[in-house]
Each structure stands twice: as structure tokens, then as C-alpha cells.
Design brief:
By secondary structure, the protein is mostly helical. The chain is built from 8 helices and no strands.
Length: 189
């Protein structure tokens, strides 16, 4: 089991991309046309686009303040939830599923992805608990994993472009823009 968990952790992005690409290929060949993200009269299209953009924004905000391995980041989006990068990715996946318009995709994407990231999150939390034991004990008790609690928190944090670049978040931006353009062309076909 330990080897399977390591495999999932190391290959999570590749596995996610393969799964998503396979479903997209199937949907292009056999599914309905995607929703129109720029038509205000197509609510699923607008909601899907907003989820994608919101998720990308959450990822960018999180990556710009994260100082991985140097400190336990507990400010900005990390004051709301412990895993804002992953939460942003989930929002983006839901948004793309809404845009594509095949309800089965939500199950076929989210179930395996949730399993993969559940393993990854547990692994990361064990690592953070060993590296920042006192801070982690307090932080993990007061900050939920994914769904923010209704409480007042200070969201200010110094966002830095160099951190955003260091975490290669520009790759997510480029891939997202390319995917949105491709979906719009697919819609127009």
C-alpha cells in the first residue's frame, strides 16, 4: 500500500491530466457541445467559467504567498483553509465539468481525483506535523482542510510574484487559458 500511495503522490498531476484528457476526447467525439461561457443566457456556461477563473485565482493567490519548506504558511487563503491550492484545483475541475456539460464527468473526474489528493494531503500533513510540530498542532485544530468555517480571519498577506513564479503557477495559467480557448472553439464547431 505504501508504494501505491507514493505512486499516486508522485504521479498525481500526470494521472489527473490523463484522466481529464481521456474524458475530453470522449466528450468531443460522442458528447454534446459544451456550454457557452460568454453567453449570459447559458447559466452553466457562466457558472463554469466563473468556477474556473475563481479556482485559478485562488491557486494564484495561494502560490504567491506560500513559502514551502521554509515556514508553515498560515496567512491569506491559508487562514481560511489548509489546502487552498487543491481547493482551487477542485473549483477549476468543477468549472470545466460544468462547461463541458456531461454530468457523468463530475463523477468520473472527482472520485479518482479526490482519492489521489486525499492520499497527498495526508502525506503532506504528516510532513508538516513533523517539521512544524507546535505550529501545526495549533493550525490544524483551528483551520479546516477544505471548507472554510464561518469565522472572521485576517486575509492580508504579502503576495510575491517571485513566489508565484517559483511554484510555476504560470503553467496553470497557460493551460487554463488554452483549455478555455479550446472549449470555446469546440462550442463554435
Amino acid at each position: 500500500m505504501h508504494n501505491a500511495a507514493e505512486f499516486l503522490i508522485r504521479r498525481r498531476i500526470l494521472l489527473s491530466a490523463i484522466l481529464f484528457a481521456s474524458l475530453i476526447a470522449y466528450d468531443v467525439a460522442f458528447g454534446p457541445k459544451p456550454h457557452d461561457m460568454i453567453n449570459v443566457h447559458d447559466p452553466l456556461g457562466v457558472i463554469g467559467a466563473l468556477l474556473v477563473i475563481g479556482g485559478l485565482g485562488l491557486r494564484a493567490w495561494s502560490a504567491g504567498i506560500l513559502h514551502k519548506d521554509a515556514e508553515l504558511t498560515m496567512v491569506g487563503p491559508y487562514a481560511l483553509i489548509r489546502n487552498p491550492l487543491y481547493a482551487g484545483s477542485f473549483l477549476m475541475m468543477l468549472g470545466f465539468c460544468a462547461l463541458i456539460g456531461n454530468p457523468l464527468n463530475i463523477v468520473l473526474i472527482l472520485v479518482p481525483i479526490l482519492l489521489i489528493y486525499a492520499v497527498k494531503v495526508r502525506h503532506e500533513e504528516r510532513l508538516l506535523a513533523s517539521r512544524f510540530s507546535e505550529q501545526w498542532a495549533i493550525y490544524s485544530k483551528s483551520t479546516p482542510r477544505f471548507i472554510p468555517a464561518l469565522r472572521r480571519v485576517d486575509l492580508t498577506a504579502p503576495w510575491q510574484m517571485r513566489q508565484w513564479l517559483k511554484h510555476r503557477e504560470y503553467q496553470a495559467l497557460i493551460a487554463t487559458v488554452a483549455a478555455l480557448v479550446a472549449i470555446e472553439f469546440w462550442h463554435l464547431m
